[in-house]
Amino acid sequence: MKKHIDDSDMLACGELLIKHRLTIAFAESATAGRLAAEFALIPEAGKFLKGGVVCYDANLKCSLLGVPQGHLKAFTPESKIVTCLMTSGLQKLIPADIHIGCTGLTAPGGSETEDKPVGTMFLYAISANELLFSEQAVFRGSPEEIVLQTVEFLADRLLLQLKGLK
Known about the structure:
The protein is about 40% helix and about 20% strand. The protein has about 170 residues and is α/β, with parallel strands linked by helices. The protein has a single domain, classed as CinA-like (Maf protein, Alpha-Beta Complex). The chain has a five-stranded mixed beta sheet with strand order 2-1-3-4-5, sandwiched between helices. The model has no long low-confidence stretch (mean pLDDT about 95).
């Protein structure tokens, strides 16, 4: 059972964020702050990490990040559209160059379906109003393993974007 992160991509992200003088902020649900926490462990994180919002409870998605209540009912709190709206709401709360949102299902009892099983995670990243990536992935394992895989997946996707900068 995997209990730690392969941090090579994370370290590379930190180096490139610093090199390009970019800052980052997170809106997290299923990962419950783990994304921000892992990025905070990167050397010199204070140069790029602005902070994050944990909105594990669906009502916080509405009250803190401005996700319309009707969207939670229509699309479920763990969905691509809600992740997108959370990320947009984060832009209004925390000034940063890159905003990343994450929702998903790490354990039974949420909005899982045959098409959206436990382990389904949604990531959405924007810079200004430009989409960097929108990903849906399915991971397997315990809730902790799903979260760790999500952190690594995010670092990989972000690193691809950062390597493309000049």
